[in-house]
Design brief:
Blueprint: H1 2-21, H2 29-104
Helix pairs in contact: 1-2
Length: 105
Amino acid sequence: MLSEIEGAEDTNRAAMWEAFGRCPTGAGTDAAACRKKEQTRFEAMWEQQKRVIQDKYRKMLDNEARERERLAGQIRARTKELLDTNQLLLKVQKELISYKKGVAL
């Protein structure tokens, strides 16, 4: 996420400097007002872009958390099934041993 934000920020900053180049030169009020207007416009655009990127990664993290919980639930269920099956197997083995003992006598 950080590299995507940094890349977008670099692109936005370059576009803002290009827009500054279209403003009148010098220290006059027209030049300052133009630069301020462009800076405000690009800052608003940048904040929107950053929110979109952050939302994208937040959704990815939320999805990962849901999937992690779903998988943990499946693991718990399968573990219980294995334990139950193992208990049944042990019971059947004991019955088989008892049967073999009875047949051998």
